[in-house]
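hey so i finally got around to running the thing on that chain from the lab meeting. sorry it took forever, my laptop kept dying and i had to restart like 3 times. anyway pasting the input first so we r on the same page abt which one it is
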Amino acid sequence: MLLGFRSHASVHSIERSATPLVGKRRAPRGTRFVLDALLGATLMVVVHLFVIQVSVVKGHSMEPCLHDGDRLVVDRVSYNLGEVGRGDVVVLRYPRNPAVDFVKRIVAVPGDRVAMQQGTLWVNGEVADDYGSIADDETMAAQVVPAEHFFVLGDNRPISCDSREFGLVPQELLKGKVRVRFWPLANATLF
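ok and heres what got predicted. didnt touch it at all, straight out
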């Protein structure tokens, strides 16, 4: 009995949809395409502005982890919902010129004590150079990272412009966390 009811309901809805439109004018053929294109473009802009961003690495400051020309997918939502983690690779606005984006690694979070001794990174009294970075011989006095700020470094320390040069990065300058390197395909990586 139930099957017969479902079958009857399906036929009934088909009959109703096949009823000709009386007194209604159809939109011109191109109108539907234009509306769909506008809706698609609007969704793409919203996703790009608020959810994900595609970034291209320019320069060598994150080698050997990232290389010049790598394409990245940046998650712009997770830091609004959760914590920024030590070791995260992030895209941030350059503090001296917020129109420019940098890719760096977070090495110290609020409350951490960070220092460098002859190129070795120390965080909270322990060696913290486990990122496969290229070392330099720099020494930096210890400092405590204040609330809502982060200490960032490039993995290629000898050539990187990072917190050693421009200071701590306020949280509002973080654009998002790098989630995927998708190009070149041979080096595709999840972070």
